[in-house]
Amino acid sequence: TSGTRMQEGLLALMQLPRIAVALNEHSKAGLAHIALVTDPTTGSAYGGFVNLADYIIAEPNALVGYSALRVLQEAEGQDLPAGSHTSESHLRNGLIDSVVTRPQLREHIGVLLGLLNNEDQRPANKENHSERQVHSPHGAWQQVQLSRHSKRPTASDLIDHMATSFIELHGDRSGIEDGAVRAGFASISGEAVVLIGQVRPNQTEVRSGWIRPAGFRKARRALLLATKFNIPVVALVDTAGARPDLEAEERGLGDAMARCLSTMLNVPAPTIAVITGEANSEAAVSMAAADRVLMLDNAVYEVIRPEDAASFLYQESHRAGEVAERLRITSHDCLRMGIVDGTIHEPGEGAHTSHEETAALIRRAVVRELGRLRRERPKHRLKARYDRYREIGSTRSKVRGTLERRLAHLVDRIETFTDSIRRRKSGRGDYRDYPDIPV
């Protein structure tokens, strides 16, 4: 379509709210709305029911956008850049979700509808046994380095091995696509889930994988779709944090992060988060506030990077190893504090030794927890989620809070004192980099 027919006048324009009202009722009923965009799609169709869809598919090289090509060229006063105002440019900017050739449309839409309708769902696993928790023998600083291993699997690697099908969402419809977050509908061992992954392309680079506001909004969009279709959520958490620059702040970083966290806590379907690498700061917790939180054995969960903490506390970043022990960031520390519910064993010397086996271990743990969560009533599950996050770190009283703080301070001083004695006796610190771990 090229938009509204002027021959019918204003009555043609009024078809736009007429269709929107019907689509609102359609959405309230929990039904899927998929838009297929062909060449051309402009005007009221694109500015109306196309962009109200849950998922937008376009054919290759289709003319896509609100304005007609001639109108845009007149407004710009020159020819448009090659490839602009097409389905491919809209995909790059996160305005549509996929570009699919016509022969592949039937299969693509069929898989998507199956996942949205939860047709792949298997009966809940009736087994109720717990796997034995085996904790990493490494110290905190060595685990930090393992979590940053240059060959550690990224969320993209794990998605490729875990999911038998994955229909990806792109963007938040605001014009920006953030590759630091992947999200979509997936099938894991027959379970239809909304799968969200925080992607760090280069585990050893501090700035790699910083999440922009668009990344949090993409994740929130996926969470809202999980709410609409009552599909469980699985989040793979591994991030250096939110992008700390002026552009991100002015695009609403704080708002995007807060709304992502709030939406995660309100999803009525079961939610599971798996910390797979280095989960840092509010960027991690905004996608990890789930019913069940699992953690790979050598993963770490940080309020701040140990190097940054050492710089703040001592103005000496080389004391990061010492600080790492005191920050309580390991999987065992998090399990002991009740922040995570279980740890997942890593193959060999760590997840970097086998991406496929690591993905299989995560998949097994996720399916087991999904089976347990499905047996709970939704109302009880939401109440348990609410209670869980209301109680974490709660002092409950002024006296108890004072005692806990003083005890923590005392333990901290004792650990510092014993560490200094050990270093004096050995003649050197024990917090060096480990040469066998490439970073």
CATH 2nd-level architecture of the largest domain? Alpha-Beta Complex
Give the name of the CATH superfamily of the largest domain.
2-enoyl-CoA Hydratase, Chain A, domain 1
Can you tell me the overall shape?
elongated
The level of helicity is 40-55%
Strand-and-helix sequence, N→C? HHEHEHHEHHHEEEHEHHEHEEHHHEHHH
Report the radius of gyration as a whole number of Å. 25 Å
Main beta-sheet strand count, sense and barrel state: 8 strands, mixed
Average pLDDT confidence is 87
Residue stretches low in confidence (pLDDT < 50, at least 5 long) are 428-435
Cα distance, first to last residue?
53 Å
Count the domains.
2
- The CATH top-level class label of the largest domain: Alpha Beta
Total beta strand runs? 11
The fold-level CATH name of the largest domain is: 2-enoyl-CoA Hydratase, Chain A, domain 1
How many helices? 18
Concise account of the structure shown:
The protein is α/β, with parallel strands linked by helices.
